[in-house]
Amino acid sequence: MDDVTDMPFRQICKRFGVDVLITEFIASEALNRDAEKSFRKMQFDEAQHPIGIQIFGADEDELLRCLDVVEQRQPDFIDINWGCPVKKVAGKGAGSGILKDIPKMIRITEALVKRAHLPVTVKTRLGYDETSKPIVEVAERLQDVGIAALSIHGRTKTQMYKGEADWSLIGEVKANPHMTIPIFGNGDIVTPEQAVEARKRYGVDGILIGRGAIGNPWIFEQTQQLLRGETPREVSIAERVSVCREHLLKSVDFKGEHTAIFEMRKQYGGYFRGLKDFKQFRIPLVTVSTLEETLGIFDRIVEYYNN
Questions:
Q1: For 83-103, how does the pLDDT look when each residue is reduced to its tens digit (9 = 90+)?
Q2: Which of 280, 297, 275 has its CA nearest to residue 288?
Q3: Coil, strand, or helix at residue 280?
Q4: Among 43, 112, 296, 303, which residue's CB has the most CB atoms within a 10 Å radius?
Q5: Per the confidence metrics, is the pTM higher than 0.90?
Q6: Which of 84, 88, 160, 148 lies closest to 116 in space, CA to CA?
Q7: Tell me, which fold does domain 237-306 have in CATH?
Q8: Do 7-227 and 237-306 come out as alike in CATH topology?
Q9: Residue-by-residue DSSP string for 46-82
Q10: Residue 1 pLDDT more than 80?
């Protein structure tokens, strides 16, 4: 999730119980050009282990060239994004665009596995469109070339994020007796209850939570609590504001005030979801341009809901 799963947000998610972290996806070509933003995306601290650096691209040579730079950061694994459906990525044959050419996908993956000194994992989708969902066969072929784990989003490339994720094929991959590597499922998991149900129903080794974590780092803690048979705790309004404030301040330190203020706007819907009469604060939060103004709105939120 570009401009979402940056280092400040990962730090917060780790505190609230996430097991494994993955960076924002990073273009191999940008790494090879020494692009500053791409190098910043690779930053993480020791507390974030285990963590994978996710890369994407369509050119085998570019992907192979960037491995040295990625491995110098000493992540626990390297994740290849064969799943992003957005036009600027997939339209160039990267991300889920590679699902139009499965042989190329397998060939590049094998080359990366052979060259890398770290475990290589893959994230992908069911297939390119409704007429072709070869994920069961593709999963076997990816395992055969040596990937360490596979994450599957339950949609095709052409679906983008529309409709419902089809977990039945994810479950079919996991149930395949030929599969021995960990299989992780992804798609439409926005509550702890959905995460636990999907894990139990489809037998996957783990659940990837993406959009459901935006502005909601507590989803990891609450899912862990449910898995232990406990009742997930309620998060107070004061805690929501406190963690959101911390998130913003960390982002300002990491990216600068202007960028942080802009990128945090997509997080507020999660942090304050469900609050009655919140409309009076929503528009100001996504239109102010300074840290001082934003912190002032946070103070007013706390005062309003405490009365």
A1: 999 999 999 999 999 999 999
A2: 297
A3: helix
A4: 112
A5: yes
A6: 148
A7: 1.10.1200
A8: no
A9: GGG-SEEEEEE-S-HHHHHHHHHHHHHT--SEEEEEE
A10: no
Domain locations along the chain:
7-227, 237-306
| 177 phi/psi in degrees, rounded to 5 | -65, -15
* 3-class state of residue 288 by DSSP: coil
Question: CB-side exposure of 98: number of CA atoms within 13 Å?
Answer: 26
**Could you give the 3-state DSSP secondary structure of residue 124?**
strand
pLDDT at residue 4 in the model: 86
Q: Residues 255, 246: contact at Cβ < 8 Å?
A: no
H-assigned helices in the chain:
7-15, 28-32, 36-41, 60-72, 87-90, 102-115, 135-144, 167-175, 192-202, 218-227, 237-255, 257-271, 279-285, 291-306
- For residue 50, cis peptide bond before it (omega within 30 degrees of 0): yes
Q: Across residues 197-225, what is the average pLDDT? A: 96
Catalytic residues: 84
**Which of 9, 5, 37 lies closest to 248 in space, CA to CA?**
9
Q: Look at the block and give the residue holding tokens 């110098």.
A: 72
C-alpha separations of 298 from 253, 278, 279 in Å: 18, 12, 14
Q: How far is CA 5 from the centre of its chain?
A: 6
CATH topology of domain 7-227: TIM Barrel (3.20.20)
The answer to whether residues 294 and 236 touch, using CB atoms and an 8 Å cutoff, is: no
What are the residues facing 207 on neighbouring strands? 185
